[in-house]
Amino acid sequence: IQLSQQFPDLEIYLKRISTAEILKWLGEVFDVSNVVTIKSSTELCLKNEDSEMSCVVLEKAAKGGYVSVWIKDNATHWHTDKDFAEEAYQYFVQQNETEVRCSTGGWEGEDEGGWFRITDEGSQKVNWF
């Protein structure tokens, strides 16, 4: 059994979810502190049992109303962007037309291999740009 490699950082894109809603969710998963918002970017510190991680929530990160959530130093229980995206989708699924996107692979030394799009129809690989 091959365990998935822990990505060094995580980034997902949530469609039409507000920064306030994202911060509420992150606050249910981590201890959140040092929240600073400048224009459309919110920086915060996430803490779990043994680590502190820097996180940035960026509104209007991509056309179509996508908000980026980037955890810079991944010490979370999510190994990959897709793990992070799937849990975010499950949390926000009650909202209409929830959609979460993430890269299909890590960025280090690899060409970007496309994107996962997670919706009511499941997870699909798409070309985003």
Briefly summarize what is shown.
With 129 residues, the protein is α+β, with helices and mostly antiparallel strands.
Describe this structure in words.
With 129 residues, the protein is α+β, with helices and mostly antiparallel strands. It is built from 2 helices and 8 strands, in the order βαββββαβββ. The protein has helices at 19-29, 81-92, and strands at 10-15, 31-38, 41-47, 52-62, 66-71, 100-103, 115-119, 122-126. The protein is globular and about 35 Å long.
Pick out its properties.
eight-stranded antiparallel sheet, 129 residues, globular, alpha+beta, 8 strands
Q: Decide which structural class fits the backbone.
A: alpha+beta
Number of strands: 8
Radius of gyration: 14 Å
Order of helices and strands: EHEEEEHEEE
Mean pLDDT: 90
Uncertain runs: none
Distance between the termini: 34 Å
Count of helical segments?
2
